[in-house]
Structure prediction request, 442 residues.
Amino acid sequence: MMTQPDATSDLALVVSRLATWLQSMRGPHGYTGPVPHWWQSSLHYTGIGIDWRYEGIITGYLHLYRASDNAHWLARACQAADDIARAQLPDGSLQASSFERNPLPNGTPHEAACALALLRLVVVLQAVADLRWQGYLAVAGRIIGRQLSRLWDASVRAVRDDPDVPSFVPNKAATLAEAIILLAQISHSPTLISDYAVPILDTIIAHQLPDTADPRYVGAIYQNSFGSQPVPKFFPLYIARCIPALALGTQVTGEPRYQRAALQALAFVLRWRTPDVRFPQVVYPHQRVNRYPQWIAAVGDILHAIQLLAPERPDLRAASQAWLVRGQLPSGGIRTAHGFAAQISQRTPPAPPDLRDLLPVCGWNDKAFAYLTSQLMPQAAQAVRDDLPLEPSTHACQLRGVLGTYEEDQQQLSFRQGARMLYLWRKGAAVPDVCDPVLYLK
Prediction:
């Protein structure tokens, strides 16, 4: 059996297994697979998703390319970028850009995340005089243009989450703001920052609890608002996803308020980390907490935020990085979560784990991939491969009280109860071969 590495053991091997697993999830035109999520899960659409998975996948490949100078990783990044370009619709939006709601287009923050990934690739290609940057810049520009034309609300100088509803979601807007800033820098268009990115960042800060709040909540950012009414719930993962854009805001404007907001947001996230270094799903007013499910692969985004603001404090990351790495399955992917079976009860999750806990997902693993590749020194990065022979994963699990066995190898994944096959998906396929009604989750 595979020896499970910890945070300080062979990180190159962890990344190699993960990179190989990502390749196993590719179909002819992109990265595929089922999606368990907090709000709903989709196990019955398993085709390509042109969503935020591409942010971490392309970023991870660029980390490997920069660290190793191996052109293989730049080719992988361009292959993924071509997936995005191929999926762009005439109006600039992207097919299947809604993650757990795929194959719907117009997903937020997913299309902005794809644009951000493309722009990061543009910077690298420009540096090596590779003219492919021109096409990728055009695709990213059309994505951002479509987002602004569809979602910008001039009356409040911010982006709506839905064109028909006066709504604002800080973490989603933050991803768009980060993409706008990078586009402005590449295209030498500073008015994009002043006209769009700065107002978005100011609106995020307006959703952050001030210093006068309950000390345990200082720095928290409301998950969303409708009109002038914020929704009083705080998701540590999504607050962490606001941090890169806020930190970038200070870099491009010189205004310290954005960095201060980022630091306060990170302090809130760390304040609510549990003694066993896990992060709750939701924090509500009056110290009410939804602990489950606790993300595993997605913790990569929180670790990225910690590293960004406190690079001199690896101790703040070590235990949570170990939690992330311990989630790697023998087949290379990293588990999605711990405790989906307790999502409603919020009691200690029963054994064995929920099927949704085990299922590795491209759109969660990309966050682990981006972070872990950023931790590799050049010598370790040169040892990374994406063609390893991976062991099959076999685990007892349950779903809605149905006990069964989860199995995954490089070709397929399944869930069965004895001889009864409840779920069978051949990797790369748009739909599973078998999907029992018990698996139709909302």
Summary: Residues 21 and 156 are 44 Å apart (CA to CA). Residues 11-153+291-391 form one domain. The longest helix spans residues 133-151.
